[in-house]
Amino acid sequence: MAKSHRYKFWGQNIALIIYSSSVEDPYIFMQWIKRKKDNSWEKPKNKEGRYIKFSLDEIVIILKILKQERYEWSTYHIFNGEKTDILINWEDKTYERLWLKIPEYAKVLESANAEVLQLLLNHILLEKIEYATSYKKIELRENEQVINENINFEDKEHNLSEKLEHNNNINHFNNSKNKINGTIKKETDKAILIILNSGNEKWIPKSTVHNDFLHNQDIVQEFIIDNWVLEKNDINQ
User: Fold this and answer.
1) What does the pLDDT read at residue 1?
2) What is this structure's pTM?
């Protein structure tokens, strides 16, 4: 069983990327990118392209379309106050071409690619039904390097936890938060390694990050983090 999935449907001018970073996440992301005027492709790490988060029930609806049980589906998402219209539909009743449309991006899949998408989403959905809805923690094997990083980080996190407990006891803990921007370089069950705008790399406990973030190593994104962690790591942005 793969822990994550990533698949790209390339086209002449528009590409669609499907990715799921963990079987424990009850959602997937679809990302649209397009070819620019200079013939290069948009890069997610430069905040180019658009991505949409789809829940488990929305995956089921998309699968109904792919299985030709529905002809089309239209909906919208609101994120940070911005509304994004979504339309997924067959071009006609021959069911040979499937369109996936959001504002400024329209990706068409021929029948073979549509079948690949159906198989991929069906596989991901079954995994997530089993693991993302279970209370039992998944034990997934990782390579020796990541295991060592986990051990090293757990020691650091233990020290930080002791410091936090001490600060709480003497009523000096500051519970305020601040925003930083960065790119995820590595990730463990308990922490993320963030590349800051300065180029420095810092391990941050996931328990101190207070916003949703993409498990994607290609994009710059915002993280809302406890001040005490930022101060501990000398992070100023």
Assistant:
1) 63
2) 0.60
Structure-token pair, residue 168: 């709480």
Phi, psi of 132 (to 5 degrees): -75, -15
pLDDT digits (tens, 9 = 90+) for 177-191: 898 988 888 888 889
Please, what's the b/e burial string for 132-153 (b: 16 or more CB within 10 A of its CB; e: otherwise)?
beeeeeeeeeeeeeeeebbeeb
The domains found in the chain, sorted by start residue, are 5-131 (2.30.31.10), 144-232 (no CATH)
Bridge pairing between strands 50-55 and 27-34: antiparallel
The tens digit of pLDDT for each residue in 106-162 reads 999 999 999 999 999 999 999 999 998 876 544 443 444 444 444 454 444 445 545
Confidence (pLDDT) at 135? 60
